[in-house]
Amino acid sequence: MLIRSEIGVDAAGIDALLKRCFPTSAEAELTQALREDGLLTLGVVATDDEGQVLGYAAFSPVSVQGEDRGWVGLAPLAVDETLRGQGIASKLIYEGLDTLNEFGYSAVVVLGDPALFGRFGFDAAARHGLQSRWPGSETTFQVYRLADNAFDGAEGRIDYADPFTRLK
């Protein structure tokens, strides 16, 4: 299993994986829109020896109260159903966090299971005065600090890139 940043030839495999992993094609369409609009900050893939995409994590820009603070959102995250429980998602997340840290990003937000993302150091965003646009996400909206000063003066609503506005 190879964990690396996505390259152009991975797009079709990523699309197929997302369509297999989610009940609708919304995540595949979202990822394609982010890519087409130049809003895919980082994509991390897990591939087998033949280059087939078996896992994927996407990171795209978010704003804090309309301000660009060098923050990104993690979504979508997917691992082929036959390989779940083998730590692939963890490797994708760690690789993404390490790469974003190297590139100088300040923080990462995610909407997901606190038990899963808490293992990586994500914390409830509400504790820092931050919220998402999705009602009822207070317990599942989380943040991860990459830079020491990431939360200085940061509070209010986090908005994802425009393609996310099509998601319910």
Characterise this structure.
The chain is α+β, with helices and mostly antiparallel strands. Helix content is 25%, strand content 32%. The chain contains 4 helices and 9 strands. Strands 1, 2, 3, 4, 5, 6, 7, 8 and 9 form a 9-stranded mixed sheet that branches. Strand 3 (53-64) and strand 4 (67-79) form a beta hairpin. Helix 1 (11-21) runs antiparallel to helix 2 (26-36). The longest helix is centred in the middle third of the chain and has 15 residues, at 88-102. The chain is globular and about 45 Å long. The model has no long low-confidence stretch (mean pLDDT 95).
Global Rg: 15 Å
The low-confidence runs, each spanning 5 or more residues with pLDDT under 50, are none
**End-to-end C-alpha gap:** 33 Å
Largest sheet: 9 strands, mixed
Average residue pLDDT? 95
Shape: globular
- Proportion of strand residues: 25-35%
Question: Can I get a quick summary?
Answer:
The chain has helices at 11-21, 26-36, 88-102, 114-118; strands at 2-5, 42-47, 53-64, 67-79, 107-111, 123-124, 130-131, 141-145, 156-160.
Protein topology:
Elements: E1 2-5, H1 11-21, H2 26-36, E2 42-47, E3 53-64, E4 67-79, H3 88-102, E5 107-111, H4 114-118, E6 123-124, E7 130-131, E8 141-145, E9 156-160
Parallel strand pairs: 4-5, 7-9
Antiparallel strand pairs: 1-2, 2-3, 3-4, 3-9, 5-8, 6-8
Supply database-style keywords.
globular; alpha+beta; 32% strand; 168 residues; single chain; 9 strands; 4 helices
